[in-house]
Every structure is written in C-alpha cells, then in structure tokens.
Amino acid sequence: MNWDQVEGKWKQYKGSFKEKWGKLTDSDLDVVAGKRDQLVGKVQERYGIAKEEAQKEVDEYVRTMRAEDEASRPASQAQRAGKL
Fold first, then answer.
1. Is 42 exposed, middle or buried (0-12, 13-18, 19+ CB in 10 A)?
2. Of 2, 3, 25, 82, which one's alpha carbon is 20 to 30 angstroms from that of 70?
3. What share of the chain is helix, strand, coil (3-state, %, to 5)?
4. 13: Cα separation from own chain's centroid
C-alpha cells in the first residue's frame, strides 16, 4: 500500500489510525486527510516524539496495513498484485 492508496481510502482507514494513535482527535484526522507529512506531524505533536521516530512509526504501521490487506485477499489476487 502506498500513500496514494491511503489518501484515496482515508475515510476507510481513519478509524484504524485512530485506534493506533488514540491521542489523535477526529479533528486531527480530518486535517490529515491521508497526507503522510500531516499525519507524521500530528503524531509527533500529540506524543512528543522526534520527527524521525514519528515517520518510522507511521511508515511501519502502513507496512503492517499492507501486509494485512494482502493476507485478506484471495491467493490469486495477491499473486497478481505481486507480479505488477
């Protein structure tokens, strides 16, 4: 999953990000609107961590979302996606 996909499906994924980072408000997530830099900034601000750490956490979480998304697809669909 890349950030274009996250941004395009932000309304679907917003709840997942809220579960991961409970200190983010609905308003924060509305402002983020799927933009990586905005999300990193909000995570950094709310949790008082360095920008690099916030980037690492956000990127790692999106990688786990991608793995879960691929695992939930039928095998033939996942194989086709891997060949593209």
1. buried
2. 25
3. 80, 0, 20
4. 7
